[in-house]
Structure prediction request, 268 residues.
Amino acid sequence: MAVNHYENFPVASVLLPAHLRRPVALIYAFARQADDFADEGDWPASVRLASLAGWVQQLDLIESGVTPSAPLFVDLAAIIQEFDLPIDLFRDLLSAFSQDVVKTRYADFGEVMDYCRRSANPVGRLMLHLFRATEPRSLVWSDNICSSLQLINFWQDVEIDYAKDNRVYLPLDEMARFGVSEAHLREKRADDAWRRLLGFQVERARALMLSGKPLGRALPGRVGLEIRTTVQGGLRILEKIESAGYDVFRRRPVLKPLDWPLLLFKAV
Prediction:
């Protein structure tokens, strides 16, 4: 199931054990709504940042043992306590979304990965806490999968992010190295330079995803199947970017109903 900005992550999937579906849905609701503060509507930056700061305060209440005022956070407090979820992972998400309000360009890939560390990796780590599977190697595998999913979302949404929010996640130094400028984005120009740049990004995202792939076999049962399906979904979108000749301006690659039987077959 795909939901808004987290469409590359299955949300409360039927593949998950029943007792985990509600906690997973709550975590995604938190991430989705906070992300919407940064990206949706016509609010000025000051209002967006104030809204996100208000959510930080709700987390502070939970950490101090005080009942939060917002219903979502009352529910979050219950699963944080039940599964011993690190509150700092929720804070990391809010930090990344606050950054989206004020930062629209990334100098190099290191800056992009720092954003992924806070915008995507916490989701995977929270999932591992729900699964009671927080061994160091599992955390690394999860980070690689989640960072790759975030990168894939960037590359499939290059045109949307630029047109809607004047935001460019492509590293500026790599754009220069491949001879790509923001004119490519304004003009929706998928020429040879653009294809080389995006091809490079696709290959790097794929390598990162494959480096995290062992997590799907390390985790048992339906949880492992969920992870393997997520990995296959990300790889499938990369294939679609390639099949479109890297012209994501005119054909946004997304997972469609007919893709899911293939993903499940590969996952099994």
